[in-house]
Amino acid sequence: MKHYKKLSAVILILIICAFLVPFRFIKSDAASESMGECVVEVSSSRFLSERNADMRLPMASTTKILTALVILSESNLDETVTVPKEAEGTEGSSVYLKAGEEISVRDLLYGLMLRSGNDCAVTLALHHSGSIKNFAHAMNQTALLLGAENSRFVNPHGLPDENHYTTARDLALITAAAVKNETFREIVSTKYYEPHSWKNKNKMLWNFEGAIGVKTGFTVRAGRCLVSAAERNGMTLVSVVLNSPQMFERSEELLQNAFETYQMRTLCSTSDLYDGCCVRYDFSYPLKQGEEDKIRIQNEIISPDSEIAGIMKIYLENRLLFSQNLFMMK
To answer: How much of the chain is in helix, strand and coil states, percent to nearest 5?
Structure first.
């Protein structure tokens, strides 16, 4: 009888598990959806996938991508900074800076991007602009110049504020500009920063082939946010997921799908002749299968006896992708 009861209990457990497993996967699939997301190819700014990409959302510490970009554009990395009183004890993630401590701009940037130090963000902002308000103005000006027209920044770290928001598309454009900066790429792709024994929080560097890194973010209001960059076969992609419960898994999925679907194609080259003329810039563009047949190159010779003989225009169907001057061969 005892054996019978044990057997019955085992069978009951197996039946319960059989019902629970499918529901677990259904829940996982639903959780993989981000509130807003997109993937962009860096050199062309072509968006390869998007979902709610223009929805205004809080972005938590992914804010620090723009903070770093502003600092890198205008600051000396080897300059020594004295940590201000306002930075010590900044709420949220921190590298535990002390007021009066001296530290380089370079170290602050590593603390900002690897450890998400809010105290680093405040120190950098005050060093750059003298106040958080002035630095936020510099952030907004930079964002607008990069085409991020649906964003507003009021602080350098991403702590909650109803007037602090972005979109997946805007954040992708900002990050695409940032990863073109060699120092930025070097910082965000660093797994360990030895001078301070800081380990990068971004798991993508360990888990995804070709990962460059970039920035994680989380607040209760913003949810889990992740901006990732990766490079394979000459193509550099940036993915953005905002309020994504499974941010690492979703980012890997988006990037992998984009790498499998698109390939960089050279559409014009300085080594080739076009109606007896040459160009001064190569142009490559990410295309998916079947799109090469829709590429149209139009060369217009205007002044064959002049140095600038005409103009080249490259279209994908009826959409102009790129244009440049045609030069006579000397």
So the answer is: 40, 30, 35
